[in-house]
Amino acid sequence: MTIFVTGGAGYIGTHVILQLIEQGYDVVAADNFANSKPEAIARVKALCGYDFPFYEMDVRDCNRLSDIFTAHHIECVIHLAGLKAVGESISKPLEYYTNNLDSTIEILSAMKRYGIRKFIFSSSATVYSGENDMPLTEDSHTGSCANPYGWSKFMCEQIISDFTHANNGFSAVLLRYFNPIGAHESGKIGEDPQDIPNNLMPFIAQTTVGRLPFLNIYGNDYNTSDGTGVRDYIHVTDLAAGHVSAIKHLDTHDGIGIYNLGTGVGVSVLELVSAFEDASGVGIKKKIAARRPGDLAICYTSTTKAKIELGWEAKKSIRDCCIDTWRWQKNNPHGYET
Ligand code: NAD
Ligand code: UDP
User: Fold this and answer.
1) How far apart are CA 327 and CA 106, in angstroms?
2) Atom of ligand 2 at shortest distance to CA of 203?
């Protein structure tokens, strides 16, 4: 089966492609390098020893999509391309809505023209509203999103759901990722934020190699075990394996499936910092700062539905995540530019 992966040069896309190829799938990938580098694709090709077709393009370009769907017998699309920086989405909402919604609409339109019937979408835990009890299940309330990025994912989910219901034989899986961290165990591919990282793990990693002076801990007065925010951190290779399980699910299921991909375990900021210090052997300079606006105290998922229906569960520990992130960051202190 040939799978078209959009956003293939990104953090999650590189790990997904590698695992698809390891599992015997053929891959065609595309990316416009808005938030990634050509070197990422070169490294994936070197790791898997396979020169898969790659297109540098904006996936909103319907003519280029037609060219690809004519040239390759694509049976499934994994749509990872998207803008994802929460803070930037607040200052540039139209860029986020245009990019994330139009790319999804153009891809679904092209799939319809070419009779491609299987679709997997990168959604996010940010589609859940802040008032839910923990753990979040796929039936928890969505909407009331905290920022335009979250709304763009919420709206894409609605578009995909409407399209699926309108087109018999089309099937889609919406994967709501929790907090992906870690890197491939080779240390050759990993997360390479283009600016100062927003997320905790790349901030810790860049502080540890001296690229950033210290880590701000956003709040130590939450109602949690140590007062710091709690999240569900999932190793990126476990997350990639979730996509392989979703493809298998699409082989036997029509309609729409929604799955949370996380570990089911909440880890605090201080616990993650301490695990990273253990893994790296380096002390991390940190300061307590004010709470970050819009942050929840605690966010983690139930894993039951993904376990039962996809036969998937995360296997790697927080220590694995820290060891692998550290290997990637130590070997590539400036990411793919090193
Ligand atoms: P990333 O920025 O590393 O990868 C996204 C890739 O998409 C980038 O390489 C970028 O250049 C590309 N891209 C963006 N717009 C494009 C366009 N119009 N045409 C072609 N390429 C385009 O991000 P990631 O962490 O790998 O995330 C992948 C997907 O998963 C995104 O849709 C993101 O919203 C979603 N997601 C990520 C997280 C996370 O914490 N990393 C959490 C939940 C959901
Ligand atoms: N966080 C922090 N310092 C940082 C970045 C994040 O203390 O530099 C905290 C943040 O307040 C939250 C947790 O780390 O409690 C995870 O934040 P991240 O942005 O990685 O994920 P999200 O909040 O989007 O789930």
Assistant:
1) 38
2) 8
Cβ of 33 closer than 6 Å to ligand 1, yes or no, is yes
CA distance 107 to 104: 5
The pTM score is: 0.98
Cα 77–chain centre separation: 15
**131 DSSP assignment:** T
Between CA 72 and CA 52 the distance in angstroms is: 12
User: How many angstroms does the Cα of residue 36 sit away from the middle of ligand 1?
Assistant: 9
Question: According to the model, what pLDDT value does residue 338 have?
Answer: 62
How many CB atoms lie under 10 A from the CB of residue 168?
A: 9
How many C-beta atoms lie closer than 10 Å to residue 115's C-beta?
Answer: 10
- Residues 108/242/53/44 CA torsion (nearest 10 deg): 140
Q: How confident is the model at residue 294 (pLDDT cuts 50, 70, 90)?
A: confident
